TrEMBL record:
Classification via PANTHER family: PERIPLASMIC IMMUNOGENIC PROTEIN (PTHR34387:SF1), SLR1258 PROTEIN (PTHR34387)
Entry-linked InterPro entries: 26kDa_periplasmic_antigen, SIMPL/DUF541
Domain of life, source organism: Bacteria
The species this protein was found in: Flavobacterium flevense
UniProt name for this protein: SIMPL domain-containing protein
GO biological process: DNA damage response
Pfam families: SIMPL
Length: 230
């Protein structure tokens, strides 16, 4: 009998506590924070492609062009930690009509350019040394963590301001935050373009040209907040 009484008492306390929580007046709002930044670095994915009838010769030609590209990168004082081979492939391609097999070799190098003043010179040098495909160029900020923090704070300020606007009409005030949910999506910089034409095809002029238009990138944070109403 005592066990039944204890069980009923605990159950009553639990139900009462649950009802009490549900009766706390709250307001749920969302906030967004945006920070626009001029990028200060870029990541370039560049590929050397070669084709031929003999696998060994195709691979050798590809390696020679990649070696020239790596020498250029080092000559421009890009740190060894800022470039790496991303993909290597050597594949046969069979032509059923001609009943002939050709070989297709590719090597892709990823390069981080931390000084955008080197961008134009590097791009032109890559093409001259054997790069025949630029897969993408992504502009980014070296201070991403700092700007993400700023965006989060702006998002919280907007959420609080929005809640204050709503409750001011009712003559109430917002109290402490009950819950905070981070709804921010992972920041993924978008490629500027996917393909690249040889500069010699665009112009015969030997004069240096400025081809960089990095623009701005926007770093965004989103939050949902539940405030207690007072």
């Amino acid at each position: 009998m005592k066990r039944v009484i204890v069980f009923m008492t605990v159950l009553f306390m639990t139900v009462s506590y649950g009802q009490e929580i549900k009766q706390v007046p709250q307001i749920s709002v969302s906030g967004e924070g945006k920070v626009k930044v001029i990028p200060d670095e870029a990541t370039i994915s560049a590929t050397v492609e070669t084709r031929g009838n003999v696998a060994k010769d195709v691979k050798k030609q590809n390696d020679e062009q990649v070696e020239a590209v790596l020498k250029l990168i080092k000559k421009m004082n890009i740190a060894s930690a800022d470039f790496r081979t991303q993909r290597v492939a050597l594949n046969p391609i069979y032509d059923s009509e001609k009943k002939k097999t050709t070989y297709y070799a590719t090597q892709t190098i990823e390069i981080i350019v931390r000084d955008l003043n080197k961008y134009d010179e590097l791009m032109e040098g890559l093409v001259n040394q054997g790069i025949n495909r630029i897969d993408n160029v992504v502009f980014q900020s070296s201070k991403l963590a700092q700007y993400e923090s700023e965006a989060r704070k702006l998002a919280m300020k907007e959420a609080k301001h929005k809640a204050e606007d709503y409750v001011s009409v009712l003559g109430q005030k917002i109290g402490r935050a009950m819950t905070i949910s981070d709804n921010t999506q992972v920041y993924n910089p978008q490629p500027v373009y996917a393909r690249f034409k040889t500069m010699a095809m665009e112009s015969d002029s030997a004069a240096p040209r400025e081809t960089l238009a990095a623009g701005e990138i926007t770093i965004t944070a989103n939050v949902s907040v539940n405030f207690i109403l007072e």
